[in-house]
Every structure is written in structure tokens, then in C-alpha cells.
Design brief:
The complex is a heterodimer of chains A (about 260) and B (about 350). By secondary structure, chain A is mostly helical. Chain A is built from 13 helices and no strands. The chains are: A mainly alpha (about 260), B alpha+beta (about 350).
């Protein structure tokens, strides 16, 4: 055992404290949704999600959720089909550009969303005129906001693999560049690509500022709308969204572990 | 290792005559720094040529130009007489083994080996069969279902060799494939590469900075320095008749001593030695360790002090300093064990020596 590792008791204390940090707010939110006005506990508010009488109240949330899921899919596509191939190209052919590219990719994390929107607003005026005002157009802005997170995940995978040698070996064996990327590099960058996709989904589902100021109905803006009529529903949907992300994380972790087992 | 019988092995059954490789006037620069200065190299079909030289001499760049991984600024690359200078790597029909382990980590050994065949439209079943043939050739048929990380470094390079050979390429390019391996495996694989190359008759270009490796396996060696070829010739030619001081210093161990040439002979320490090529005046004489011996008092010889002596198994190599300050290496039987500071007398064998005018 590593002599520098913390003792078993210390590990337990750290685990419990960190667990409590995350679990207590979630538990409090859950209790808030099940505690009735007379002090009793009931799942009545959760059941109301399926009540036809609530359909009109819930409609903005379903619409917003649909838009957010569509945005998540398009944003993940931007990450996988635009960002990842660009990063591979920069690492393979334009290594000198890497610091510049990294700086540009990490820049959005240092710019507050509200400032970003000031710059994006006139651009979206043009986008509105040419592509319409559909919520899906937000994916361009989201493609920028997820850049820092997706970049770090993919770059960590690229750094762990000798992609230059793999690419050159595949080329010498007769592979086209498409084959090199899809059949040689992508499987070896799998974990980074999966992590980047997950983070992108999480960022898109949690984004509020840009969508609100650009006036596009998404999951987070819909919750604000619904909260004015029913304060409990947004809390229920927040828990459901977290559960969704948690399951997504488990699935991706399982897939990644499955790959590791297959190799060993 | 036992090579499979030709009749059973598709790869051996189809062994050909090899392809002629020509590099003409290759110039390559990086950001204004010229690393290849108009290199010419003509390799016969089926020949095993090593590019030997110190780090930064341009040998790997030349190989990469031949592979199409770098495009030359000027010059022509011909494979089998056809100009491939602008043909991308994947269309050149080459096989390449790299210095670092280049097997695809997510594919089993047999799938790695079949990769090139599948790119050429060979059916999955046929590709598998031919891959197993190639793996048998390198003695790894039993490892077909393993993943690369389950193999040792030497085994990985042997699979890489099988993968490069299975497509029956026009030319096999080896970019320091042994340098990451330990000494024993290195010698084994080196000999294995040469045996397979001779059986398949494939034209091979081998980049190395290890002169012993190059001397052991090559038909010819091109010694490179500062972006050019200093000398090309058989290992024997390079060893016994180095054309330049650089070649003499790089190929084999040489000691440099001062002498005076007078036509066909040179005088060193009072001894007259025959010259490989006539010269006159003060010269540097290149002496191989095996041509220096311990001498008796009566011989024409020089006095020296022992600096160090190293046991090398079947022989011992000793470094001595002469009274004029020249450092001389000599090779002798392990039974003689000189110690540091011992006073000895050394003489030269009357073998033809290479000299260069003292600059």
C-alpha cells in the first residue's frame, strides 16, 4: 500500500463529507416536493405530472425539454464532428498552432455568459433572418460554451495516445484519412470523446442565461415560466434532470469499463 | 525460430524479386533549416540498405520522404521506375515499422495484421488466413487473439513487421524498429528481420544509428551526415576503406594517430604501414582496435599508459595513452588483464590503413 495514501478512516471521513455536500441539497429538494402543507409526506405532486389537468401548465416544460434535448444532440454533433477532427488535425499537422488553439478553446470559460450574449446578440439577429428563430439555432452558441470542457476531455485522451504514430502506421498500410480518424483514432480516443459528449449534454441542459436573453424556450427557461404558477414542479424536474445525468454518467462509465475489460 | 514451409505459407509462396528504389536530388527544409541537401540513393531490387548516421543527420527524414510522410521540397522518388513523389503514403504500397510501438491498441493481433489487407479490399476470411501466415513467419501465430498490451516490446515489433509484410509491399521501411528493445531481443529480432528479408526478397531500407546493427544485416550501408550521404558501400568496404574521417569515426571503433605518408606507405611510431590509397605528407591515420597489439621490447613500437580496460566476454578492450598523448584502443585476449596506470608497449599490425590529410 502507498505509504503516502490517507488511512482508511480518513478516506471514509472525506467520502462522507463530500457525499453529504452533494446529497443534502438533493435530499432537501426532494423533501420540499413531497412535504404537504399539513406536514404530511406524499408523492401527490410527483403523480400530478401525469394528471391531464396539469397538461397546459406543464406544456412549456415539455417544449423546453424537447428543445434542450435537440440542442444537446446538435451540440454533441458539433463536438464530435467539428471540434474533435479539428483537434486531431492540429495535433497531427499543425502542432505549432496548438497553444493558440488551446487558448481560443479555453477562452469561453473566462467570459461570463452575460458578456458572451452581448457579443452574440447581433450575430443572432442575422441568424434569425437567415435560419429563423428556432431554438435549435442556439446550438451554435452552445458549441462555443462547451468548448473549454470538451477540449480538455479530448486533449487528455490525445495526450495519452501516440496519435501521430498510429495515424502514420495506418496511412502506410493504405488507410485513407477518413479511415484513420474513424477506425484507428476514434476508438482510441473513445473515453475522451464520451466524456466530452456527456459534459456537453450537462452544460446544454443546465444553460439558462444565453437562452433567456436570446429569448429561446429551453428546459431551464421553461422552469422559470412554470415556477410562477407552481413552485414545486421545477424542483421535481430539477431532480429528474439530475437523475437523467446520473444515469447517463453510469452508462458511459460502464461502456468505458467494458472496453477496458475487453482489452484485458 | 522455425520458418513455415513455403508450400503452406502464402506470403512465402508469393515472394518476389523486389522493387528498385531511387531517390534523386532530394532536398528538404524545415523553417529555413535544410535537413537534406540533394540526396541521391539508388537501391537495387531485393537489396537491404541501411541509412546510418548520428541523430539529426537526416536519415529518418529521408525515410519519411520515401514513405510519403514528408514531401520533399525538390527531388524525385521512384519506386519500380514510377515517379511517386506526389503520391500520398496510402497509395505508395509500402510496409513500414516504426521506432515506437505502432500497433492499434483496440485491435487484436490478427486484426492489426489484417488491417492493410482489408484496406486493399481483401475479404475478411482471406485477410485472416494471410494474417496468420504472416504471424507464423514471425513466430507469433499462437498470439493472434491477444491484444497488443498483452505482448512484450519485442513481440509487438514482430507483429508490426508481420503487419508491414502481409500486404506484400514494394518496399519495407524500418525506422529504428529495434531501438526501444533490450539488447538480447534486439539482436534476435535483427537477425530475424534479415532472415525474413532474404527469404521474401523484399527491398528494405533500414534506419539506424547503431553501426553494429547496420554492419550485421545490410547488403549496403549509406552513412549520412549533415543532410547528405558521406559514403555508401558494403559493410566490409565501409569498415576497411572509409572515404571520410566522419565515416571512419562512425563505422566501427577507430583511434586516430599522426603519421607521415610517402606514396604507398605511412610511418607511425617508427613502423611503416601500407596505405589503402596513396598519400603524401602529414596525415591522420585511422587504426582499428583489432590492428593494435601489445609488443615486446625489441619491436618497433611505442610506450603507453593504460587508462582503462573492459572485459567483453570473448575479448577485452583496453584504452591506452601514448607518450605523445594519443588515445589508442586495442582489442586482445581476455587472459591479458592490464590495470589502470600499467606501462605497456603497443605496436600496429602491418595491415593497409586509411588516412586523411591532417586538416
Amino acid at each position: 500500500m502507498n505509504p503516502l495514501a490517507p488511512s482508511r478512516a480518513t478516506r471514509w471521513i472525506i467520502g462522507v463529507l463530500v457525499g453529504a455536500f452533494f446529497a443534502i441539497p438533493l435530499l432537501a429538494t426532494f423533501l420540499y416536493t413531497v412535504k404537504m402543507n399539513d406536514g404530511t409526506y406524499s408523492l401527490q405532486r410527483w403523480a400530478s405530472l401525469f394528471d391531464p389537468a396539469m397538461a397546459s401548465t406543464l406544456k412549456p416544460i415539455w417544449t423546453g425539454l424537447g428543445n434542450s434535448l435537440l440542442l444537446a444532440v446538435i451540440t454533441v454533433a458539433i463536438v464530435l464532428f467539428v471540434l474533435a477532427p479539428t483537434m486531431i488535425l492540429v495535433n497531427l499537422r499543425f502542432a505549432k498552432l496548438r497553444p493558440v488553439f488551446e487558448f481560443a478553446a479555453l477562452l469561453p470559460i473566462s467570459i461570463p455568459a452575460i458578456v458572451l450574449v452581448v457579443g452574440l446578440a447581433p450575430i443572432y439577429l442575422q441568424i434569425g433572418r437567415t435560419l429563423g428563430t428556432g431554438a435549435w439555432t442556439l446550438s451554435f452558441a452552445y458549441g462555443v460554451t462547451v468548448l473549454p470542457f470538451a477540449y480538455r476531455s479530448i486533449q487528455a485522451s490525445i495526450d495519452a495516445v501516440d496519435i501521430r504514430t498510429l495515424a502514420e502506421a495506418a496511412r502506410s498500410l493504405g488507410a485513407s484519412w477518413t479511415t484513420v480518424v474513424l477506425q484507428v483514432l476514434a476508438p482510441n480516443l473513445r473515453q475522451g470523446l464520451l466524456a466530452a459528449s456527456l459534459i456537453s449534454v450537462a452544460v446544454v441542459l443546465g444553460e439558462f442565461t444565453i437562452a433567456s436573453i436570446l429569448n429561446r424556450p429551453v428546459f431551464q427557461t421553461a422552469m422559470v415560466v412554470v415556477q410562477k404558477q407552481d413552485g414545486y414542479l421545477p424542483a421535481i424536474f430539477t431532480l429528474l434532470a439530475l437523475l437523467f445525468c446520473f444515469i447517463l454518467l453510469l452508462v458511459i462509465g460502464r461502456v468505458a469499463r467494458g472496453t477496458g475489460k475487453a482489452r484485458s | 525460430m522455425t520458418l513455415p514451409r513455403t508450400a503452406d505459407n502464402m506470403l512465402l509462396a508469393e515472394a518476389g524479386e523486389g522493387t528498385r528504389v531511387q531517390l534523386q536530388g532530394i532536398v528538404k527544409s524545415y523553417a529555413g533549416n535544410t535537413v537534406l541537401h540533394g540526396v541521391d540513393l539508388d537501391i537495387e531490387p531485393g537489396e537491404f540498405v541501411s541509412l546510418l548516421g548520428p541523430s539529426g543527420c537526416g536519415k529518418t527524414t529521408l525515410l519519411r520522404v520515401l514513405a510519403g510522410l514528408e514531401i520533399a521540397d525538390r527531388g524525385v522518388v521512384l519506386l519500380g521506375g514510377g515517379d511517386v513523389s506526389r503520391v500520398p503514403t496510402n497509395k505508395r504500397d509500402i510496409g513500414m515499422v516504426f521506432q515506437s510501438y505502432s500497433l492499434f491498441p483496440h485491435l487484436r493481433v490478427v486484426d492489426n495484421t489484417a488491417f492493410g489487407l482489408r484496406r486493399r479490399g481483401v475479404s475478411r476470411a482471406d485477410a485472416s488466413k494471410r494474417s496468420l501466415d504472416a504471424l507464423a513467419l514471425v513466430g507469433l501465430a499462437d498470439f493472434a487473439d491477444r491484444f497488443p498490451h498483452q505482448l512484450s516490446g519485442g513481440q509487438q515489433q514482430r507483429v508490426a513487421l508481420a503487419r508491414a509484410l502481409v500486404t506484400e509491399p514494394k518496399v519495407l521501411l524500418l525506422d529504428e524498429p529495434l531501438s526501444a528493445l533490450d539488447a538480447k531481443v534486439r539482436v534476435q529480432l535483427r537477425d530475424e528481420i534479415r532472415r525474413i528479408q532474404l527469404r521474401l526478397g523484399i527491398t528494405t531500407v533500414f534506419v539506424t544509428h547503431d553501426q553494429e546493427e547496420a554492419l550485421a544485416v545490410s547488403d549496403r550501408i549509406a552513412v549520412m551526415n549533415s543532410g547528405g550521404i558521406e559514403q555508401i558501400g558494403s559493410p566490409e568496404q565501409l569498415y576497411t576503406s572509409p572515404a571520410t574521417a566522419g565515416v571512419a569515426a562512425f563505422v566501427g571503433l577507430s583511434s586516430v594517430v599522426s603519421g607521415v605518408a610517402d606514396g604507398d606507405h605511412v610511418t607511425v611510431w617508427g613502423q611503416r604501414l601500407p596505405l589503402q590509397t596513396p598519400a603524401d605528407g602529414p596525415v591522420d591515420v585511422y587504426i582499428r582496435p583489432e590492428n593494435v597489439r601489445f609488443a615486446g621490447e625489441a619491436d618497433a613500437a611505442t610506450d603507453a599508459l593504460v587508462e582503462e580496460s573492459t572485459f567483453l566476454g570473448s575479448m577485452r578492450r583496453t584504452l591506452v595513452r601514448t607518450e605523445s598523448g594519443e588515445l589508442i584502443r586495442l582489442q586482445h585476449a581476455p587472459g591479458i588483464q592490464p590495470a589502470f596506470g600499467d606501462r605497456v608497449r603497443i605496436a600496429l599490425a602491418p595491415e593497409p590503413v586509411a588516412v586523411h590529410p591532417r586538416g
